[in-house]
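Here is the promised in-class demo. Please do not try to memorize the tokens; focus on the logic of going from shape to residues.
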């Protein structure tokens, strides 16, 4: 280890070391240094000899060196640590120089390693990990089949928008979309065709949701949910009817349906404003439950239609 060598031997090997290094006495006076250290201090090596650390380094680093002596005198050790010197990140390694049989600390050897490249590489790796995490997070909130949101993504978005609409006293609407006679479609055409049908429906829904702050998700199976922040019942019913027509226009044949094509039933619910103090989870569950009731009204009405549940009094 470096500190076991006599100071004279250390002076001889300093020029061969690949990092900036200096030897300091207890007064933080330079006992020796190498050219790399002198260059780091923006001076010549011969100008360092006999000078104090304070002549070249800021007060905080000098104070840190003095504290290092106190720690070493107490039998402690100095862990490697990072500093910024002249805008360069440096890893500092401090070793005691001992003297005599009692091993009294007569000085310290300070080695400095430029870690700027390492930090750049670490930042690049960290950015890559962050991007990968964001990508995985996106996958975790995306339905693999349709590319729409999934139930987890819907829950996150819905609760966030409920809080926002509650704070701003703005309306919010929900639509639940169920594919009519989908079980018989799968039975007639097979599950692969069923998946392709759901993909087409998902694309039709997404193409209808034009505002960036609206959200469409596949809730499960053949059920989809649309969240329409800042949208009243009139607006949400119009969106639902547009979706209804867009799916009709797909003209996906379905001989097991009385309409002879794929259609959907849609239930819509909305509120003009959300009272403050309500739990977002409770509001979410209530709106989904009422939209589901409106959906069953649409099914009871013969399907292939939109029904609205009006929460507010007429």
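The designed amino acids, position by position:
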């Amino acid at each position: 280890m470096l500190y076991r060598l006599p100071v004279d031997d250390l002076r001889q090997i300093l020029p061969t070391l690949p990092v900036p290094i200096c030897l300091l006495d207890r007064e933080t006076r330079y006992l020796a240094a190498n050219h790399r250290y002198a260059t780091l201090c923006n001076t010549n090596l011969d100008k360092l000899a006999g000078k104090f650390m304070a002549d070249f380094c800021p007060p905080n680093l000098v104070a840190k060196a003095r504290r290092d002596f106190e720690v070493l005198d107490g039998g402690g050790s100095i862990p490697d640590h990072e500093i910024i010197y002249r805008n360069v990140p440096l890893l500092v390694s401090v070793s005691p120089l001992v003297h005599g049989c009692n091993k009294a600390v007569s000085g310290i050897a300070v080695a400095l390693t430029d870690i700027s490249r390492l930090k750049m590489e670490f930042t690049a790796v960290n950015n890559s990990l962050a991007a990968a995490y964001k990508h995985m997070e996106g996958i975790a909130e995306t339905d693999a089949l349709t590319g729409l949101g999934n139930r987890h993504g819907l829950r996150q978005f819905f609760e966030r928008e409920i809080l926002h609409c509650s704070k701003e006293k703005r309306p919010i609407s929900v639509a639940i979309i169920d594919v009519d006679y989908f079980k018989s479609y799968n039975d007639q055409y097979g599950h692969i065709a069923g998946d392709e049908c759901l993909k087409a429906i998902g694309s039709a829904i997404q193409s209808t949701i034009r505002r960036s702050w609206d959200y469409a998700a596949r809730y499960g199976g053949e059920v989809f949910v649309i969240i329409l922040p800042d949208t009243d019942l009139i607006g949400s019913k119009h969106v639902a009817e547009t979706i209804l027509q867009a799916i009709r226009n797909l003209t996906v044949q379905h001989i097991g349906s009385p309409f002879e094509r794929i259609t959907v039933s849609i239930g819509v619910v909305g509120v003009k404003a959300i009272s403050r103090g309500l739990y977002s989870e409770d509001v979410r569950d209530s709106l989904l439950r009422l939209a589901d009731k409106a959906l069953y009204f649409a099914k009871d009405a013969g399907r292939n239609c939109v029904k609205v549940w009006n929460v507010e009094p007429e």
